[in-house]
Amino acid sequence: MTLIWSEYQQNIFNAITSQHNMIIEAVAGSGKTTTIVEIVKLLKKKRLVSGNNGSGLVCAFNKHIEITLSLKIKGTKFHSKTLNAIGHGILTRRSYPNKVSIETKKYYQICAEVENYFTPSHLRSLGLKDLVNHEFKDINNALKRLKWREKPDYPYVFDDFLDFVQVVNTCRKEYSKHNLSINDLVNLMSEYPLEISSYLVDKELHLSVAVEAINKALEYGIRAYLDNNTIDFTDQLWLPLTLGFTPVKEYDWIIVDESQDLNLNQARLIKTLGWSGSTYIFVGDSQQSIYLFNGAKPDCMSLIKKYFNCTEYPLSLCYRCPPNHLELVKEYNPNIQAFKQEDGLIKNLSKTEVRELVKHCYQNQIEIILISRLNYIFFDLLCQIGFEDNVKVSLLGADLGKELIKLARKILGNVNLKKSEEVTETLKEYVEYYSNQMDSTKADYCKCLLSIWQYIKPTSFTQLSSQLSSIIIPDGVIKFGSIHRAKGTEAEHVVILGDNLLPYSPSNRKLTDKEIEQEKHLTYVARTRSKENLYLVEQITANNEDDDDVILTVDSSNDYLIEDIDYGF
Asked: How far apart are CA 23 and CA 41, in angstroms?
């Protein structure tokens, strides 16, 4: 089949020439991957990357995309690799003949080691004797111990041990060095929700002590690689840059997919993959930058444009969504245009109506995606239709079920699972604790566990795992996931649970400017997944008070009308 290229695509193809760096603003559903593959084929046809001429690299966002692109560009001189794989290769070559080993908990262990550096005598010498915690060891209750500190006698440089780990990890995504200054930390805290001890905030030395702790952790991280060849995934990018290691191969043409999700160190590593005569082509959508937690800034595309001196080209035609669906995101991206002429269905549904819709799709094997900003919002419905309606469901992305079981074992290990009230009360306490600590992921997971105990009462972790496995299957037509996990997916039928809460704003803290921008991007992503029918489910707050405790609107009074609802089929 011969493809008919849009005017936007033709302009891009015509502009391709050596040493002319390009940045392509590709809206959702604009045929981004197809355009990348055509660029590769065009470079082969023009003999710019063909035979003995030139070399090419397509940087893929993840392993799945790498495999997909590799198959599509097979037969060309282009290679598809992830940046992590490239960084890992650099470190492996430098460690030869020793083998590099990945320790995912490396910096948890390192941050714990740093406490040995911050001895009580060292803290007292700084006039910070109140940081030394002597009361922690006498607390037996697990949750109370957690509220005091996750590590015995850990100095109060940060309000929580995990805050320390998070700061160190963020530094390794933001900076390509290991000797941070106070100004570096101040800049970091202005962009990310990083917490330093409230006690230290009142002290003149609080920033210098925090920087000292961070730099010590970074120093230990480098030493662990040089002495023992141990790294984690973030090290694959940070260590080659901070140690000045360069890749063996330099490419003439470098195409970068999902450019809006690059953090600074990924951009710096890309720079080292070329030479002065290399040509860079970045493809992405500014409005789909949603990985701030990984160091990707919402304005990443504009930063790349400046850093690599790129000329911008639009790819504004959306082939996926009907025109009226795109009207819902015009405020976030006014440039997006619809290829389709006919409007699709946009319908508000109650939870009862959604259940009937899902059952209809399941019985007729029609694919449908149900997404929400937080996991627990969709997980309650997942449990209901799974355990009560006997519908098999699938999860987008990583296995949330395994993560929930892992957390349950950690926080409910000393709880009698046969006493469901005790389980529920413990989970509620952990929701409160993690919310206060601003660990939104664990608070979210605890609420998912509460949903499980609402519909079933597992008396062992084995039974919990078995019952979840009985309703969650690898690749079914009923797919649930968070908006983050839904990125890159599309379906004829899409349900947004809690659409009225978008853009999302938590009630327990104020978002940074960059977080606010990211929430707008997440709204854009959610509303651009639908190819035909878009269903919006309102979410109301319990007692209209707490945004963190929301429930789906249930309209049981209309149950008798269910069979007459027009779902757009």
From this structure: 18
DSSP 10: H
**pLDDT at site 51:** 82
559 in Cβ contact with 352 (< 8 Å): yes
Residue type, 213: A
How many percent of the chain have pLDDT more than 90?
68
The larger pLDDT score, comparing residue 8 to residue 543, is at: 8
Task: State the Cα–Cα distance between residues 415 and 397, nearest whole angstrom.
Answer: 30
Q: What is the pLDDT of residues 491-533, one digit of tens each?
A: 999 999 999 999 999 887 788 888 999 999 999 999 999 999 9
Q: Which runs of E-coded beta strand occur in 333-384?
A: 337-338, 345-349, 368-372
**Mean pLDDT computed over 111-135:** 61
Strand partners, 80: 58
List the 345-349 sheet strands across, edge first.
345-349, 530-537, 491-497, 368-372, 478-482, 394-395
Q: If we measure between CA atoms, which residue out of 366, 319, 321, 318 comes closest to residue 533?
A: 321
pTM of the predicted structure, to 2 decimals:
0.86
What are the two backbone dihedrals, phi and then psi, of residue 159, each rounded to the nearest 5 degrees? -65, -20
Q: Across-strand partners of 254?
A: 57, 280
* Closest to 313 (Cα-Cα) out of 88, 94, 24, 99: 24
Angle at 154 between CA 426 and CA 216, to 5 degrees: 130
Q: What is the CA radius of gyration of the chain?
A: 25
Question: How far from the centroid of its chain's Cα atoms is residue 98's Cα?
Answer: 33
Helix (H, G, I), strand (E, B) or coil at 246: coil
Could you write out the DSSP letters of every residue in 410-444? HHSTTS-TT-HHHHHHHHHHHHHHHHHTT-HHHHH
Residues 455, 391: Cα–Cα separation, whole Å = 14
- Is-contact 257 59, C-beta < 8 A? yes
**Of the candidates 383, 351, 347, the residue with the CA atom closest to the CA atom of residue 556:** 351
What is the rounded CA–CA span in Å between residue 498 and residue 355? 15
Helix ranges, 230-317 (H):
235-242, 264-272, 300-307
- Of 466, 495, 460, the closest CA to residue 480 belongs to 495
